[in-house]
Amino acid sequence: MVTYLPISSPFIRFAGRFVDEAFGVAAGYNFFVLQAMLVPFEVVACNLIIHYWSDVVPAGGMIAIILFLYGLINVFAVKWYGESEFWLALGKVILAVGLILYTFITMVGGNPLGDKYGFRFWRDPGSFGAVYSTGSLGEFCGFMACLVQASFTVAGPDYISMAAGEVENPRAVMPRAYNKAFARLMAFFVLGSLCVGIVVPYNSRELIDGFEAGAPGAAASPYVISMNRLRIRVLPDIVNAL
Known about the structure:
single chain; mainly alpha; 11 helices
């Protein structure tokens, strides 16, 4: 649809054009609320990450500093804002690739303990955790519960469509951009999910305690728990920083 009608804010305007004007208004407000909620979500996340190392700065002070930096970046010209976004996104890509490589290297024995754990946790306790019920139904409910939460972090195609009204030759460029976006989403999200299930069991006491106690930063991360289990130093701090 974007290739056929390359306009600005397409997925919102398409809702009004092809369904109903009221649906377009609802889509616009829904997207606004989504973007507005991302700001406090990221501010809280940054505060938790910094408290992974130290609690010297109070939470209120840290949140004020982060909000100030947010405003400062947005005051700059678009060129500087785009430059900061590029380097921050590059850090995420490096982290994702690094964690996938970490999983493969450690699972074949490349760790201080020499533990070739492979797919051990897929056998004991298993690859799926049951919730709300038992057996296959409980495992399916567990999968859907994870899917609903994980889908919050998936973004990409909607942002690509927003550039349709600005790019040159959108009918040639947009299909290639979409294909690359889906390939990268599949690579990072699917492989990332696979790696999480490999490095730590779903019933890990450290993982459960980390979420129930609200452990700061990446302390509740499956990768950090795995690194601590394998007695790997420094890497947990790098993961938290990225």
